Automatic annotation (TrEMBL):
GO molecular function, one term: hydrolase activity, hydrolyzing O-glycosyl compounds
Species this chain originates from: Pseudoneurospora amorphoporcata
Boundaries of every Glycoside hydrolase family 2 immunoglobulin-like beta-sandwich domain copy: 230-333
Family: Belongs to the glycosyl hydrolase 2 family.
InterPro entries associated with the record: Beta-gal/glucu_dom_sf, Beta-mannosidase-like_N2, EBDG/EBM, Galactose-bd-like_sf, GH, Ig-like_fold, Ig-like_GH2, Ig_GlcNase
Protein name: Glycoside hydrolase superfamily
UniProt GO BP: polysaccharide catabolic process
Alphabetic keyword roster: Carbohydrate metabolism, Glycosidase, Hydrolase, Polysaccharide degradation, Signal
Mannosidase Ig/CBM-like domain mapped to chain residues: 690-775
Domain Beta-mannosidase-like galactose-binding: 42-176
Extent of the signal sequence: 1-21
Keyword Hydrolase appears in the UniProt entry: yes
Length: 904
């Protein structure tokens, strides 16, 4: 544990210097009270290839040179084998190679073994902490079993084992995880998201830690905040809480000291203490409260800054000898939720109604979590204008919440659907072999909830917890979950499920809907909100997981994981089952629904490149419409209170269901979503044929004007108008109808909406948004909707766009080095495009590459897939998120010749 400087200084006076024993201090895992460290590396072996006496194997002196070595604190079996170089994911993810990994090797228990040193002695106590091992495991330390697979059960079953009597100078930890079945075990299942990992995620997927304390040990720190009204100018209370365990056979009087200090900006720490007497061998909640007169309020990124505080609780015994300390980061914010008159849930953050706009997260298929990668993903989320990520049963690791706290992203966590987690007698969708819960199962679920609540409790980014996904927990599990959350001082909303199929009476309706779609629907689907009883996923209420199923990778990514034959299938066999989709038994194993729409609306593709371009247009149109429709209907009669796009990321290189692809290349789905999620925006409602002004800010100032223009495919202006308007913050409204302007479309027209700040000299647009519209919109057959899509009976016709006259667009790209706020140099590239033709230049993609023509990733583009008006000139900026060698920008449009422009 790395303590911030102020805290280290605070404790240096009371810390005992470690005894200068014979041990090499660098090999000692932990040596001071309160110190905690993960076991940093493992030796692995299949139980079929190791001796069967686990007592003996968990004593020193075993030769593990023939075992598999990994230099990482955590990995599933497949994750470990990848880490050790036995498999290679470039090869594994190529075409359908994953099918050929031997699954038999994972149908037996495996062993994770590691030796480490400690410095035991009088007054030193040691603890072994697990945070979940998939799916269950026997745990041995120094020849003794610490826990068997009945106790150490479930991927989220975190336990603290007191092991003082077992530790020695040299210690051997041996963990034997058992094979996982998603039907029988509480694991991290994938439902229909992707092919299942061949090991079913078995193994030590989270850190196993060792902690040293004195005779009194603390559980995780909980921080309870109480804010006044108004939040910003009232004093707040902070209560620090932890479970103090007296490990001694005598009563002890302890001094509990609390410290609260602002992180990252100046401010003195506040320290206060009190004494408490603990009975022998007892567990007592210790609680310390203090008033903070001017709390700095934490906001989601779009609404303000993210001030964080560091909290620390320490206990000392007798002569001020430190026994243990725990710490956490927290922030001052409130989250509440309420059902409106339609029984739809609205969240409130800091008492402001908070429209949730985000997407569902998938971890890596082999659960390889990288805080650095997640930070890039979080940067993408903010670049997109999203405010929330949903985690369905994939709570990951503490670092995820630390990044979200720091960057201002809300996290909606919860349990997963469709497997052991929802094995209720009333679950209609459960896979057949899954048995309903027995006593032991309730115990595992309880321990899981208790542990996760403890891990999440202090994080200001946590929006709430969904204790069910597709189905609500039964009348025994629901109160058990709720009381586990309560006992961990949970302060944000707890909802019974992510759907409206039912709920435990004492909790009330969760107010979230899960009515699809998950596969392609046309853009007008989202705006077709009346009558809401039959309109399923359209933009009203809170959609907990829904989308048009898009997220096709662009060509450069496709070539990384598809063979030549797979690539040909994409455009020549539109109905073929494909490996890089959902599982083969799911409704999403091919692109039939998507491709039927694409073929009907755009005509049969003429080449792979033509197909991929049409997919990008389709994906962009789909995500833009979905995000815009929810944002536009935020203040409608039946408000759209929130929406989680299905999904944010993919667990492997996938052809669908993500905002960006596995390699983090942002393409059509990304930029459609980014336009649709702008903070100040103008959007076109395909059904009402009207323009909506969207304002997701709390404080952006000044009068606004909206410039509206319609041109035909030859560039002739058909309509032009400017609307001046005033709005309220955090509000959307309809500002004008285009019904008559769009009455006589011959084949296709382009509609451009430009929002500007008319009170500012800066002429830059706040939002620039171009639509392509056909004579008629797609006709939806609502009555024949399935759970995953609504069929289209008549498609709109965009084929005229295949015959656009070529546009002559000049492109220049200039690099601009500048110093970042952190002081290191960064470079951004300004790309200027000018359309010299009288016709619109349609859907121009820009791709940043290095000198070998490889994509520079991750990267944020101010805007992309641009459509330029006749004679229009546009400049967009691009910045790589990491250090990168930038060489050129590849340019390609529907009626713009492909070129590569060197960066000057
Ligand atoms: C193991 O990883 C750590 C941290 O990444 C690194 O410092 C160390 O050198 C690595 N050890 C080996 C043997 O590769
Ligand atoms: C994995 O395989 C690819 C393709 O064969 C190769 O280029 C790459 O270097 C390999 N990666 C590792 C870590 O060995
Ligand atoms: C993974 O889970 C599935 C479904 O429970 C099961 O059929 C399969 O045998 C499991 N694989 C392993 C390696 O345990
Ligand atoms: C803080 O605690 C005090 C004492 O219990 C109480 O009077 C006050 O109302 C609390 N403040 C807030 C903001 O809840
Ligand atoms: C407290 O400190 C004094 C002086 O160092 C020592 O004599 C005494 O034994 C200590 N008491 C305990 C309970 O450790
Ligand atoms: C909302 O839920 C309550 C309680 O379940 C029910 O009585 C009421 O009819 C519902 N209202 C609407 C508009 O569905
Ligand atoms: C759940 O776990 C907590 C903490 O271990 C325990 O106190 C409680 O009794 C358990 N509840 C049930 C219903 O098992
Ligand atoms: C959004 O609301 C703010 C705060 O009232 C206001 O200053 C701003 O002009 C609004 N923006 C738009 C696009 O209406």
């Amino acid at each position: 544990m790395q303590l911030p400087l102020t805290i280290q200084v605070l404790f240096s006076a009371i810390l005992h210097t470690p005894s200068a024993a014979a041990l090499n201090p660098s090999n000692v895992l932990v040596s001071t009270p309160g110190q905690i460290a993960p076991v940093r590396a493992w030796n692995l072996q299949s139980s079929t290839k190791a001796a069967s006496n686990l007592e003996a194997l968990s004593r020193p002196g075993i030769d593990t040179s023939g075992w598999i070595h990994v230099n990482t604190s955590k990995c599933t079996l497949m994750g470990c084998l990848l880490e050790a170089g036995i498999y290679n994911d470039t090869e594994l993810f190529y075409s359908d190679n994953l099918r050929r990994v031997d699954s038999k090797q994972f149908q037996v228990p495996w062993l994770y073994r590691q030796e480490f040193e400690l410095d035991p002695g009088a007054g030193k106590y040691f603890h072994l902490l697990t945070h979940g091992i998939t799916s269950r495991a026997d745990v041995y330390l120094n020849g003794k079993r610490v826990a068997d697979k009945k106790t150490q059960a479930g991927s989220y079953g975190g336990h603290t084992y007191h092991v003082t009597d077992l530790v020695d100078k040299t210690n051997v930890l041996l963990i034997q995880p058992y094979p996982t079945s998603y039907y029988y075990d509480f694991a991290l299942g994938w439902v229909d998201w992707n092919p299942w990992p061949v090991d079913n995620g078995t193994g030590v997927w989270r850190d196993v830690e060792v902690k040293q304390t004195g005779s009194v040990a603390l559980g995780p720190l909980r921080v309870v905040t109480q804010l006044g009204t108004p939040l910003e100018s009232s004093p707040a209370n902070v209560t620090l809480k932890s479970r103090a365990q007296n490990l001694d056979k005598t009563a002890v009087t302890i001094t509990v000291t609390g410290t609260v200090s602002p992180e990252r900006y100046p401010g003195p720490p506040i320290t206060w203490s009190q004494t408490v007497t603990l009975p022998p061998l007892s567990t007592t909640d210790v609680t310390l409260t203090i008033k903070i007169s001017k709390p700095a309020i934490w906001w989601p990124k779009q609404w303000g800054s993210q001030p964080l505080y560091h909290a620390e609780l320490s206990v000392s015994v007798y002569n001020n000898t430190l026994s243990d300390h725990v710490s956490a980061t927290f922030g001052f914010r409130t989250v509440t939720s309420k059902l409106n008159s339609y029984n739809d849930t609205t969240f409130f953050v800091n008492n402001r109604p908070f429209q949730v706009l985000g997407a569902g997260y998938a971890p890596d298929m082999f659960l390889r979590f990288s805080p650095i990668k997640f930070e890039s993903e979080a940067q993408y989320v903010l670049d997109l204008g999203f405010n929330t990520i949903r985690l369905e049963g994939k709570n990951e690791h503490p670092e995820l919440y630390e990044v979200a706290d720091r960057l201002g992203i809300m996290i909606l966590s919860g349990w997963e659907c469709c497997d052991k987690w929802e094995a209720w007698s009333y679950n209609q969708d459960l896979a057949v072999p899954t048995p309903v819960w027995n006593e032991e199962d309730y115990g595992i679920a309880n321990a899981s909830m208790f542990h996760e609540a403890g891990m999440l409790q202090t994080h200001p980014s946590v929006l709430g917890y969904l204790i069910g996904s597709d189905y609500w927990p039964d009348d025994k599990a629901a109160p058990m979950y709720v009381s586990a959350l309560k006992s961990q001082d949970w302060q944000t909303p707890v909802l019974a499920s992510a759907s409206r199929r039912g709920f435990p009476a004492f909790m009330g309706s969760p107010g979230l809907k899960m009515e699809g779609p998950y596969d392609w629907v046309p853009p007008n689907y989202w705006y077709d909100t009346e009558p809401s009883a039959s309109r399923l996923g359209a933009a009203f209420g809170f959609g907990s997981e829904l989308g048009a199923g898009v997220g096709t990778p662009d060509l450069s990514s496709l070539k990384r994981f598809l063979s030549a034959g797979d690539l040909t299938d994409l455009w020549k066999n539109p109905n073929k089952d494909l490996f890089h989709m959902s599982t083969e038994t799911s409704s999403f194993h091919n692109r039939k629904i998507y491709n039927t729409g694409l073929w009907k609306r755009w005509g049969a593709p003429t080449s792979l490149q033509d197909y991929v371009q049409k997919t990008q247009i389709t994906d962009y149109e789909a995500t833009r419409a979905q995000f815009e429709a929810y944002a536009a209907n935020w203040n409608s009669k039946r408000p759209a209170t929130g929406m989680i796009y299905w999904m944010l990321t993919g667990a492997f290189p996938s052809l669908h269901w993500s905002i960006w692809d596995y390699y983090m290349h942002p393409a059509g789905a990304y930029f459609g979503a980014k336009v649709g999620s702008r903070i100040e925006h103008v959007a076109y409602d395909y059904v009402k044929k009207s323009v909506f002004l969207i304002n997701r800010s709390l404080d952006k100032e000044g009068a606004r004007s909206v410039d509206i223009q319609v041109v035909d495919a030859s560039g002739k202006t058909l309509y032009s108008n400017t609307v001046k308007t005033m709005t309220k913050p955090n509000t959307s409204k309809e500002i004008t109808s285009l019904d008559s302007a769009l009455k006589n479309i011959k084949d296709v027209v382009f509609l451009r909406l430009v929002l500007s700040n008319s009170s500012s000299k800066d002429t830059g647009a706040l939002s620039h948004n171009v639509y392509w519209l056909s004579k008629t919109i797609d006709t939806l057959d609502w009555d024949n909707s399935d759970w995953f899509y609504t069929p289209v009976t008549k498609y709109s016709d965009y084929t005229a766009l295949n015959k656009l006259a070529a546009a002559n667009v000049s492109v220049t790209a200039w690099s601009r080095g500048h110093a970042s706020p952190e002081g290191h140099s960064e470079s951004t590239v300004q790309v200027t495009l000018e359309n010299h033709s009288p016709v619109p230049a349609f859907f121009i993609s820009l791709n940043l590459v290095d000198k070998d023509g490889r994509d520079v990733l991750p990267v944020t583009w101010e805007d992309n897939y641009l459509t330029l008006w006749p004679k229009e000139k546009v400049t967009v900026e691009v910045s790589p998120l990491g250090a990168a060698e930038l060489a050129a920008v590849q340019v390609f449009g529907k009626n713009v010749k492909g070129t590569t422009v060197k960066i000057g």
